[in-house]
Amino acid sequence: MDTFVQTHEGALRLGFFLGIFAVMALWEGLAPRRTLTISKAIRWGNNLTLVAINTLVVRLLFPVAALGMAASASAHNWGVLNIFPIPFWLSVLVAIIAMDFVIWMQHVMVHAVPALWRVHRVHHADLDYDLTTGARFHPIEIVLSMVIKLATIMVLGPPLLAVIVFEVILNGMSMFNHANVRLPPVLDRLLRWAVVTPDMHRVHHSVEDDEANSNFGFNLSVWDRLFGTYRDQPRAGHVAMTIGIHQYNEPKLVAWLPGMLALPFLGKITGYTINRREWHERDDQ
Ligand SMILES: [Zn+2]
User: Fold this and answer.
1) Which of 76, 120, 148, 251 is packed most tightly, with the most Cβ within 10 A?
2) Is the dihedral angle over the CA atoms 152, 155, 158, 160 positive or is it negative?
3) pTM of the predicted model, to two decimals?
4) What pLDDT is recorded for position 285?
């Protein structure tokens, strides 16, 4: 199993990516949830070029990718899951859930820490919300994600199968969650008890600060519910809500690659969220 997964990693990932991309693109084309505000050709061209750049950056900087790290961990008996003699299926399940929790914490962190928010805001500055938004990240954030992922794998020692399954799920769910589609309300409500739906994650892409700082999950919805960051719906509703970031909403800047790459370095270093919060004196203190 491990050798098959290792030899076919590239083909497996590319196959799932293209398959899910095609299905979601077709769904968005046939029944879009919101009218796009700027040209799809411009957005897709620029967002997907950024994806290509990121793929190249990862290839160049990380000769050992996630699977290689998992193989090393298992060869050297590194990681919590390699220490305890637990059944294989349980090890796969625990690894997938643990990696999802780490991704959730990473997402909260890049919103909370002002310097990291500068980098993450490239993802949020997309003026429309569709499946290409799900892959639009600044190369610095991709490198940060990769470092955190490799460290997680070293500490966790997940089976190779869990790593590839998680990568495929994360990639697919990211396209699904960011898609400009709507599920039937009943299905949305039911699914949300377990996983993140497009309507749930769209709240996170609102220009409103309190809405953008909720629903951080990519796969399982439990983390937001458990840690108090869950928000049901956007105040303005899904069709009328504004997507993006208040301060950076010039299409010339945020829809084009040079602007996206420059975005973390623009603006004064005044903070965001943590040190911009308004503190009120309480009478009873
Ligand atoms: Zn975010």
Assistant:
1) 120
2) positive
3) 0.89
4) 42
